Amino acid sequence: MAVPWFGNGYELGSEPHAGQVSDPTLEYIGWSGWSSEYFEINIDDVQMFNKALNEHQRDAMFQDGIPHTISANLASRAELSF
């Protein structure tokens, strides 16, 4: 299975992934987890799903807009400024 990455409604690429996440509390956005390199970009909307979305579902999400709600506790290792 490949995990796709999207930006502004366009698929930017994908990474292969097999199996399950061994520890669901250790997910990072913007950091690989094995080096000191960080993704240097502003991320303003993030959604994660427990199933794969088909092409129609993905397109509809970007056309209809993304709701701005968070239903999880999130933590960051970086200083955040608003």
From the structure above, extract its key features.
single chain; alpha+beta; two-stranded antiparallel sheet; 2 strands
Write the layout of secondary structure elements.
Elements: E1 2-7, E2 10-16, H1 55-64
Antiparallel strand pairs: 1-2
Q: How many domains, as an integer? A: 1
Order of helices and strands: EEH
Strand content: 15-25%
Distance from N terminus to C terminus (CA atoms, Å) equals 36 Å
Lateral strand order in the biggest sheet? 1-2
Which residues form runs of ≥5 with pLDDT under 50? none
For the biggest sheet, the summary is: 2 strands, antiparallel
Question: What's the total helix number?
Answer: 1
- Gyration radius (Cα, Å) is 14 Å
Secondary-structure class: alpha+beta
Describe the global form: globular
GO biological process, one term: carbohydrate metabolic process
GO molecular function, one term: hydrolase activity, hydrolyzing O-glycosyl compounds
InterPro entries: ConA-like_dom_sf (IPR013320)
Description of the molecule:
It is a single chain. The chain has 82 residues and is of the alpha+beta class. It has one domain. Helix content is 12%, strand content 16%. It is built from 1 helix and 2 strands. The chain has one helix at 55-64; strands at residues 2-7, 10-16. The chain has a two-stranded antiparallel ribbon.
Question: What would a concise description of this structure say?
Answer:
This protein is an alpha+beta fold and 82 residues long. The chain is built from one helix and two strands. It is globular.
